[in-house]
Design brief:
135 residues, alpha+beta, 6 strands, 42% strand
Length: 135
């Protein structure tokens, strides 16, 4: 099952979902210079966005009727730089509670080398609050 509502950032970055379920999310991102940082490698914020998007897509399937899962906190460790090719993320739930979830996400390059690993804490919020504009 693929996400029915894509976040605009997913489209901006070019995140492609291959599998989305309540128990696992697989997605990929084609690297290009437009998402590189000053050093010529993929920007760490892009890696954080990739892991948060994957966890949130799966996490929303673990929420109640009319709820969504939104990121409250992300801890990410960058292991190696990535310049070209495609990044692949696998996100799985570690804890699924009534009001929050904890997901683990690992990002690999085309050679199956670990690029980054993250934990993502999600909170369950009403869908209308998740989509509300910031003040």
């Amino acid at each position: 099952m693929l996400p029915t509502q894509r976040h605009p950032l997913d489209d901006l970055l070019g995140i492609r979902y291959e599998e989305v379920s309540a128990g696992r999310v697989l997605a990929s991102l084609l690297l290009s210079p437009r998402i590189h940082g000053a050093t010529g490698t993929v920007h760490g914020g892009v890696l954080a966005a990739l892991t948060e998007s994957a966890a949130s897509a799966g996490g929303t399937l673990n929420t109640g009727e009319g709820e969504a899962a939104v990121c409250a906190d992300t801890h990410i460790h960058h292991v190696r730089p990535a310049v070209s090719g495609t990044l692949h993320v696998c996100a799985v739930p570690v804890h699924r509670g009534f009001t929050q979830q904890l997901w683990s996400a690992e990002v690999f390059d085309d050679r199956n080398r670990l690029v980054s690993c993250a934990t993502v804490q999600l909170l369950h919020v009403a869908r209308d609050r998740a989509a509300a504009p910031a003040h």
